[in-house]
Specification:
Elements lengths: L9 E7 L25 H13 L4 E5 L13 H6 L12 H6 L5 E7 L5 H14 L4 E6 L4 H6 L7 H21 L26 E2 L4 E2 L14 E4 L4 H10 L2 E4 L4 H18 L7 E7 L1 E2 L3 H12 L4 H12 L34 H7 L12 E2 L1 H15 L3 E5 L5 H16 L12 H5 L12 H4 L3
Parallel strand pairs: 1-2, 1-12, 2-3, 3-4, 4-7, 7-8, 8-9, 9-12, 10-11
Antiparallel strand pairs: 5-6
Helix pairs in contact: 4-6, 7-8, 8-12, 12-13
C-alpha cells in the first residue's frame, strides 16, 4: 500500500518455462544452489508453485519467447552455449497442473498477438479461466525477435505495426469472450435436456485487416469471461495500449519519479477514454539479494558473480534491443537503429548516448539488472521498498530470482517478516477470482467502462 492507495500490495513471482531464465542472470543455472536444470520436469514447477503460495505470493507469472536470441555476434551460438531463455517450453501447458496443486495463488502467462490466432487464443484462455476458477491473467505482447518471425514464416513487423495487429486481435477476443454468449445462455438442465438457449449464443462475424473470425465462441462464459489483462510496454505506443486495455501494468523502469510520471500519463489517458484510472494497478520487477548482514550479502553476490557470464547476458540484451554490441569498439557510440525490437533504456530515441564500452562494463557484473534498493539486509531492503512505493506509486512487485528456489526462500524467510512488520506484506485478498482481488469493487468481470465490454475502439 502507498500513502495515496491504501489497498494491500501485490507480490508475484516471475518465471519462464526454461532453464536459462533471462529475468535475473541467465547463466546462474550453473550455480550449485540453483535447481533450474530440473525445470523440464513437472516436479520442479509443482514445488516452486507450492513454495510461492506458502510464501503468500499473489501471482505466479510466466514470461515467454518464440525464438532464439541471435543478434549477438550475428548468430544464436552464444545463446545456445549458455541456454539463454532455453529451452523455451510452452508456459500455458504448465498452468493447469500448478492450479491443481494450489488453492489461492493466481497465474499469468505471456502470449503474443503476432503469432497466435485470436479464435484459438480465446478458447485456450476460457479453458484456463474455467480450470483455475478465475485465477488466470494474460500478459499481452506483440513479440520482437526476428527468429520468432522466421519460425512462423513471417516478416518482422515494425514496432507500431505490431500494435496495430494487437489492437485488432483484442477486438476479436473481446467479441468472443464478452459478446458471443449471454450470461444466461447456458442452462445445463438434466430435467429439460436443454444445454443452452440457441438464441442467446451469437456469431461474431469479424472481418478486419488481419483476421476473419465467424464464431460463436466455443466456451460457455467463464468466471472472469476475459482473463485479467496485463501489459508491459513502456514505449509511447505501449502506454497508449495500456491506457486502453490493461488492468495490471508491468513497469519497465526503476526510477521512481519516471515511474510515477509514466503511470500518471497512462491513467490520465485512460480517464480520457472513459475508464476508471484508479483500477489500473502497476507492479515493478525486483531482483532481490538479501542476507542477515552486509558481509553475508557480499558473500552471496560474490558467489553469484563466480557463476555469471557477461557474454550470456549480452546475448540476451542484444536480442531484446536489437543492437549487436560485438560489432562496436569500446569507445564507439551505439546506433539506435532498430524499430522492431523492445525499446530498452539504451536504445530508446530519447536515451543518452552510450558507448559499447559503457554497456560491457555494466554487464560485467551479475547485478547488471539489479536495483541497489533490493540488495541488502532485510531491514534495508524493506525500508527501500516502502520508500519506493511512496515515491513511485506502484502497487506491488514481481520477484525475479537469481537462483531458484533460493531467492524465493530468502524473500519468504528474511524479507517477508520485515515487510509484514511495516504493513507492506499480506492482506491482499485470498478468495475469489484474480480480477476480484485486484479491483476495489471486487467484481469478477470487466466493468462497463472497459472497451472489451463497451465496444469502444
Amino acid at each position: 500500500m502507498s500513502l495515496a492507495d491504501p489497498r494491500p500490495l501485490l507480490f508475484g513471482l516471475y518465471e519462464q518455462a526454461c532453464i536459462g531464465n533471462g529475468s535475473g542472470a541467465v547463466s546462474l543455472w550453473t550455480h550449485p544452489a540453483d535447481e533450474r536444470l530440473t525445470a523440464t520436469g513437472m516436479r520442479y514447477w509443482i514445488d516452486l508453485a507450492r513454495r510461492a503460495e506458502e510464501a503468500e505470493f499473489d501471482l505466479f507469472f510466466f514470461g515467454d519467447v518464440l525464438g532464439m536470441y541471435d543478434t549477438y555476434r550475428g548468430s544464436e551460438a552464444t545463446a545456445v552455449e549458455w541456454g539463454v531463455e532455453l529451452p523455451a517450453h510452452d508456459p500455458l501447458l504448465h498452468i493447469p497442473a500448478l492450479a491443481a496443486v494450489t488453492e489461492r495463488i493466481a497465474f499469468g502467462a505471456t502470449v503474443s498477438t503476432t503469432y497466435e490466432h485470436p479464435f484459438a487464443h480465446a478458447r485456450r484462455f476460457s479453458t484456463l479461466d474455467h480450470l483455475t476458477a478465475g485465477r488466470i491473467a494474460w500478459n499481452i505482447v506483440s513479440s520482437y525477435l526476428p527468429g520468432a518471425a522466421a519460425n512462423f514464416g513471417l516478416d518482422v513487423l515494425a514496432h507500431d505495426q505490431r500494435y496495430d495487429r494487437a489492437d485488432e486481435f483484442l477486438d476479436v477476443v473481446y467479441k468472443l469472450w464478452e459478446h458471443s454468449w449471454s450470461d444466461d445462455a447456458f442452462v445445463g438442465s438434466k430435467e429439460t435436456g436443454l444445454f443452452a438457449h440457441p438464441d442467446r449464443v451469437r456469431r461474431v462475424d469479424h472481418v478486419g485487416e488481419h483476421f476473419r473470425v465467424a464464431g460463436p465462441h466455443l466456451s460457455i462464459p467463464s468466471p472472469q469471461r476475459t482473463p485479467v489483462l496485463i501489459q508491459a510496454g513502456w514505449s509511447p505506443r505501449g502506454r497508449e495500449f495500456a491506457a486502453r486495455h490493461a488492468e495490471l501494468i508491468f513497469v519497465g523502469d526503476s526510477d521512481p519519479v519516471a515511474v510515477r510520471e509514466g503511470l500518471a500519463g497512462i491513467r490520465a489517458r485512460a480517464a480520457e477514454i472513459g475508464r476508471d484510472p484508479s483500477e489500473i494497478r502497476a507492479v515493478v520487477g525486483m531482483n532481490l539479494v538479501v542476507a542477515p548482514t552486509r558481509i553475508a550479502v557480499q558473500e552471496k553476490l560474490d558467489g553469484f558473480q563466480s557463476h555469471y557470464s557477461s557474454e550470456a547476458q549480452l546475448a540476451a540484451y542484444a536480442g531484446w534491443g536489437g543492437v549487436d554490441f560485438s560489432q562496436y569498439a569500446d569507445d564507439e557510440p551505439l546506433i539506435k537503429q532498430s524499430t522492431t525490437h523492445t525499446q530498452t533504456k539504451e536504445t530508446r530515441a530519447d536515451a543518452p548516448v552510450l558507448t559499447a564500452g559503457d554497456v560491457r562494463r555494466r554487464f560485467g557484473a551479475v547485478t547488471a539488472f539489479a536495483d541497489d534498493r533490493f540488495i541488502g539486509t532485510p531491514g534495508e531492503v524493506a525500508d527501500n521498498i516502502g520508500r519506493f512505493v511512496d515515491e513511485s506509486g506502484v502497487d506491488g512487485f514481481l520477484l525475479h530470482q537469481f537462483v531458484s528456489p533460493g531467492s524465493l526462500e530468502d524473500f519468504a524467510t528474511l524479507l517477508a517478516p520485515e515487510l509484514r512488520s511495516r504493513g507492506l506484506y499480506g492482506g491482499f485478498p485470498t478468495e475469489g477470482t484474480l480480477r476480484s482481488r485486484l479491483r476495489s469493487d471486487r467484481r469478477d468481470r470487466l466493468p462497463t467502462d472497459h472497451p472489451a465490454v463497451s465496444g469502444a475502439r
